[in-house]
Every structure is written in C-alpha cells, then in structure tokens.
Amino acid sequence: MPVPVPQQRSVPAAETSHGDLTLLVIEDDPAGTTITVPELSAAAGTRVRIRTARNLTEAARLLTDDVDCILLDLALPLTGGGAGPGTATADAGTSGTGTADSGSLPEPVSERADELAALTHVLGIAPQHAVLALTAQDDTELAAEAVRVGAQDYLFRGELDARVLSRAIRYAVERKRADTAQHQLTESRLRAQENARLERGLLPTPLLDGSGLSFAARYRPGRSRALLGGDFYDVVRTPDGTVHAMIGDVCGHGPDEAALGVELRIAWRALTLAGLCGDELLSTLQQVLEHERQSEEIFATLCTVDIAPDGRRAGLCLAGHPAPLLARHGLPARLLPYQDGGPALGLLPRARWPRRQVELGGAWSLMMYTDGLIEGRVGTGGSERLGQDGMVAMVNSRLEQGLAGEELLEAAVAEVRELNGGELTDDVAVLLLGRDPERIRRWGGSAPRSHPGSPVVARPLGAQRPPL
Asked: Is the pLDDT of residue 444 over 70?
C-alpha cells in the first residue's frame, strides 16, 4: 500500500480526534510505495484507513468530509487515466459517503508552476483538508515551494517510513486546524471592527452649539455584541434658537429594527431642520415608517420636545411613548402630562398627535428614556416591573443624594440592572437635557466641555466605544 493512514469518523476533518484518521493518497504508481498499513498502525497505535487515487479525477470522487489528510505525489500529472481507486483499511470502519466537486483548476502562481500544478489543483478542490507533498529526496527546493504555496508539510520518498509518516499526518492535520481557526478568528475580528465602525458612524451627534443647555446620554442595545438597537434619539438646535429633542423605540431589537431606527432618526433630523414640528412632523415620520418597515406589524413609539429659545417652556408630543421626567431646581422630579398623547407610529393610518405646552421654569433638568429602562424586573423572583412610578422614586432618591448629570445616569442605569438581577434584555436609551441660568453644571457632571455652557458629550453604556 502506498502510504499509511489514520482513520476518521464520518465527520468533517476539523473535528477529527487524534486516534482516528483517514488519509487519501494521490499517487501515479501506488504499488511502488513500500509503507504498508499494518506497519503504520503498529507504529502509530491507531486505527488506520487509507484510500488511493491514481489521478485527480479519482481523487475528487474520493474526497469526502471524513478525509483528514491528503498525501500528494508532486510528480502526478494533471491528466491521465488509470485503474479505479483502491481502498485498504486496518479496521472494520466504513468509508465516508459524499461527493466533492473538482472545481476549476486554479492558475499556479509559483515560479515552478508546472511542477506544482497538481498541488495547486488539490488545494483548490480541498481548501479545508490538510495536504502533505511527496517529492524526490534531492528536490528540497520544490518541497519548500510546495509548503509556501499551501501544503502543510512535505515528505521525501526515500525517507518514507511508518514513524515519519504517522508524525507528518498528525502534524499536518493539527496545523491545518490551527490555520483554519486563526483565519476564522481574523475574519471575525475584521467583521466586528467593520460593524463597529459602521454602527458608530450611525449614532447621533447632538447639535446644541449656542443653546446654553447641558446634554448627556446613555445607550445600550439589547442584543449581544451590538452597538445599535431599535431605540434611537437625537437633539438639534434650529436657527431660530429652538432646541428639538427626540427619543424613540422601534418594536423589537434586532438588526432590522436597528436599521429602521436609524432611518427614522435621520428623517426626524431632516424634517426638523426643514422647519416641521409637532403633528405635521409625526405624520410625515409615520409615512416614512410605513414605506420602510418590512411588515405592517412593525410600529415605533416616539417622544418629541421642542424647547423655546428662552429655555423656560417647551412643546411636548407623545406617540405611544413614556412621558419625560422633569426636575425643577429644588423640587422632586415628576412625569410630564401624558393624557393627551397619540398612538404609536404605524398603528393608525390617519392618527393625530396633539402638542401640549409645558412650563419648564428657569432651572430644570429633563430626562427622556425608552421603555427598556422601566420594564426591568424588581422584587423577589422578578415578578414585577420597575414601571414609571418606580423609576421616579429611584431618580428622586439619587437626586437627594446630590447626584446629577453623568453620575445620575450611571447610578440610575446601574440600579435598574441590579434590580433586574442582571443585564436588561431590551434596548435602553436615556438622555438628559438641563438648564441653569448661572452655569450649566447641575447635569453636566464631569464630562468634557469646550467652554462653560457647552453641551455635555453623550457617552454610551459600558466602555465598548469612545464618546459620541
């Protein structure tokens, strides 16, 4: 028999155990090989199965998933006939089934392209298999070139014995496993980096220059290892001095919902800068949602606030969204009125969203949030939700401790997670706007500023990425 074989179960080569391997020998004259299967089995202490092919066409038919390693004679011509493939086994195991497509012959790129043409072809039809190159003993240069092209190792015909072959097979299989794992890890890292850059670029950059308001935000998607979820928010200041803030939530928190949330946020900013607000803006956003959603069952809740240039009053519109929390200087926080809110976007075709006028006062702090913050579990066994009342009580207790801005956000979100007994499963978005006639400090925390009164930069939950 040509070459020794380790045998394998009918599983992909990458999952093969050390003691059960299968070798496919591709050699023009298998009868000329001196190594026998019993010799290899005795040397390696393993069950052995060997398959032989006299040309590449036969090799393609025998190349099934249970083949662990290929031993290729580099002297094998690309074309040629020969008898049908032979099979020898050292145990009673059954051979794998399946068919491998031979594919098209890749163009050799080596300086010794003609001599390595068979190897290039095998690498093309068996990219997941370990390959050993067999060559003449005096052709070290060709052997090294074979490894450079893609073989895991090489063997010389004159040195081929059971011990050398057994060690070479095991080494080739393990090296191929390691190379495949490293390649997959590299691809995964590159994909993750690209996704992170893409999602980071889709997050909002608040436009608040000249407003005199402080700003802070936290954002955490519910799905694992993501930067974006179905929640979205934005804040912009229009040329007339009005500050417009928005926060919304697309039902669900998968990649499709995240994409739709980004579309709605960008549409909201464009419409706001174009001068729309209140019912007119929400009606147009609903049209965008209806055209972009994948199913008629998809809807989105939304809360918009437009703060007058003097900062003392605001217009509030609710589309099925929780009401914001307002804390005036020296007074406990309370929910803004929500009785006149309209339905979520995408539920009713001709819905209307009344705009309620709200008095803010001279010094105030306004917290807007999505329902992921209030739907966490609390109590023994997690049978109850935190709810808006629980959130108001929690925020007030933190205010009594003197927390504000960034510190308040960090403490509030951390407490919600703690009450939930772990990470929240839904997306969470929270933003804070604040006004202090003397100095923007109460809700600014320790976040960086370019000068007193400039907006605080938003920072996401955790440390997955730099500030927005």
From this structure: no
The two structure tokens encoding residue 44: 């390696």
- Bridge partner list, 434: 214, 365
Say if residue 63's pLDDT is above 70.
Answer: yes
Torsion (CA) 353, 355, 361, 362 in degrees, nearest 10: 90
How much is the pTM?
0.58
Each residue of 266-283: pLDDT tens digit?
999 999 999 999 999 999
Q: Return the closest-CA partner of residue 174 out of 122, 132, 116.
A: 132
